[in-house]
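pipeline: protein-struct stage 2 | run 1193 | DNA-binding response regulator
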Amino acid sequence: MSDTLSPRLRVMLLEDHILVRRGMELVLKHDYGLDVAGSFCTPRQLFEALKQDQPDVIVTDYALGATETDGAKLLRSLHLHHPRVPVLVVSSHCNAATMAVARRAGAHGFIGKTEHESELILAIRAVAAGRTYFSRHLTDLAGSINPIDRSDEPGKDLGDELLDTAKLSAREHEVLRCILDGMSIKAIAQKFSRSITTISAQKHSAFRKLGLCNDHELFKVRYQRG
């Protein structure tokens, strides 16, 4: 149980899957030191609320609906307009590459949706205290020892080794992630407000860097590497 004399942390949630969002709300409401200051299913709703209120922490999904802004673009916008509010990403895209892109875009923490509820509470408290917090599972994959408070450590961001090997840009990575989610080039172009030609070029550039020839090889590599 949290110290009831300590200030309660106010958290805003952004998650487009209602059952997941309701589940996180219940977890937070059962912690005596946390309050849900707002719960939203679209970035627009969140940004409207942030005009009137500033929480202690924002908890957001990384990949929202196909028609919504998500991923690095959302995090960059939050960092630009609300730089003093730490952002924790809770995502089903739980891999070192996505975590590294999120970190570079302004995320203060990143955990997977398969983590225990206690991990969510620990992560929220860590980023609220000005530390960084990354899933132990992901930091283990990236060769890290301690998932909590890496802000003072020298060297590369978590997962940089993977990104350096692939040499993918943030946009190329997002395009491949969407393809792995089953989205078409046209749908990806609509999602990120880019032309089909641009998305296609980013896809082929990523394929070239990874030594892939087609979508089948991309999916094959994904399943081989887990």
